[in-house]
Write a structure and sequence with these properties.
With 419 residues, the protein is an alpha/beta fold. The chain has 17 helices and 19 strands. The strands form six sheets. It has a seven-stranded mixed β-sheet with strand order 4-19-10-3-9-7-8, with helices on both faces.
Length: 419
């Protein structure tokens, strides 16, 4: 039987379709609330008959680093993606890290495709599609597309066309739960039609940014995704659920965002232009979070501030959990040093760190309390399997620290004995 080697892991050939779903922003609190409220019959069955644990995700707890950890089975020190942006110290330019050229590892999907497996990658936001589809041969029935651009799919670019007809849903709005539901509906249809060996389905966290666990909209969303997970299991797939990161309430008692505007503090202390704060959560979707997250990087560019002086200043600020120099943060969280700042700053669960107040557009946040992610407190994520783990794997999962980037390994190698 063939096996696939990637980043030190030997993946066996899947015995039946394996579907890994990344519930973007899927904090364990949503699952636990939904199970208490009795609205997740399929997940409840997976938890009872399969496997459930809360695992460690990648820090910073952002979307791209965690998606890349999941699809490469490795931490950012290996795959290179540690945020949406980093500062190129040589040019002073902020470099976008969401393209496939900066991804340093092959993906599990591409490795299986090269060995002759049929694979699919479907994501909500198109910004993730090219990175997830890196190196994926789209000629032999493999597919890679986003629900955002589902109306533009071509055989050459995506390995599939007429996706709206296939799924039977209109093109979803960028700020809707349908953007994620479309991904899952497409996954169900592909499973019926193609029975791929492996699928990766990555959702969007718009609902979790705007709605706390137990809220009517959050519950409706979870009820509807649960239904899709049930359909996938019914079609004979091993269904594995995880998340890229959790989600924390980051507002003060009066409802305003609880923000440390770090660039303003550093400018007052060291002078304007001496340091550069980069918020690696920044993307085009400011209505989700106003580019405010729980992890920022500081580069010393002017020569006045030293990393140690910044650390001593920042550690005393309320809302800051820790400030670490490059070497320490890379060692603790397995990050690539060449894309790390001189100082990494992590927020407490109830706070976010920004750059300068003038850099953040908070107008999209007025409709709800700020909920966001990025720090270590949002790096605890669920890992749920529809099938029981083999005893050796169950012991392994219980004894060591379980990492969410092991989810493909667990689903492919760990469930072979399950009926
Ligand atoms: Zn995310």
């Amino acid at each position: 039987m063939k096996s696939i080697q990637l980043n030190g892991v030997a993946y066996q050939w899947p015995q039946r379709p394996v579907v890994v779903v990344c519930i973007d922003g899927g904090d364990p609190a949503y699952i636990e609330q939904g199970l208490r409220d009795g609205i997740l019959p399929n997940i409840a069955r997976f938890v009872r008959d399969g496997f459930y644990a809360v695992a460690d995700g990648t820090v910073p707890s952002f979307t791209c680093p965690n998606n890349m950890s999941i699809v490469t089975g490795a931490p950012p020190a290996v795959h290179g993606i540690s945020g949406n942006f980093y500062l190129d110290a040589a040019t002073g330019e902020a470099v976008v890290m969401t393209g496939p050229e900066l991804l340093r590892s092959q993906t599990i999907l591409a490795a299986f495709a090269d060995a002759g497996a049929k694979v699919g990658s479907i994501t909500a936001k198109d910004k993730l599609r090219r990175q997830l589809g890196k190196g994926l041969d789209l000629a032999r029935g493999n597919v890679s597309f986003s629900s955002e651009h589902a109306n533009r799919c071509t055989l050459a670019e995506n390995g599939i066309e007429n996706v709206l007809e296939l799924v039977g849903m209109p093109l979803p709005d960028m700020y809707s739960m349908e953007l994620s539901l479309f991904v899952l509906a497409a996954g169900v249809r592909l499973l019926e039609r193609e029975r791929p060996h492996l699928m990766y389905l990555s959702l969007t966290d718009y609902i979790q940014h705007k709605h706390a666990p137990g809220d009517d909209v959050a519950n409706e969303f979870y009820l509807r995704i649960d239904e899709k997970f049930g359909q996938m299991a019914e079609l004979g797939a091993v269904v594995a659920l995880t998340a890229d990161h959790g989600m924390s309430d980051k507002s003060t008692a009066d409802g305003r965002p609880n923000v440390v505007f770090l660039q303003d503090i550093l400018d007052r202390e060291f002078g304007a232009g001496d340091t550069r704060v980069i918020c690696p959560i920044t993307d085009a979707f400011v209505r989700h979070h106003g580019a405010l997250g729980g992890f920022v990087r500081v580069w010393c560019v002017g020569g006045r501030a030293s990393p140690q002086a910044i650390i001593e200043l920042v550690r005393r600020i309320p809302g800051i959990a820790e400030a670490l120099d490059r070497e320490s943060v890379c060692a603790r969280y397995q990050l690539p040093p060449d894309r790390e700042g001189d100082v990494a700053v992590l927020a407490e669960a109830n706070a976010v760190v920004g750059a300068a107040e003038a850099d953040h557009d908070l107008s999209g946040l007025r409709d709800a309390r700020l909920r966001s992610h990025g720090g270590a407190t949002e790096a605890r994520v669920p890992v749920i399997l529809s099938h029981r783990l083999d005893p050796a794997w169950q012991r392994r999962a219980e004894s060591g620290v379980l990492r969410s980037h092991q989810v493909f390994e667990l689903a492919i190698n760990g469930t072979r004995g399950a009926a």
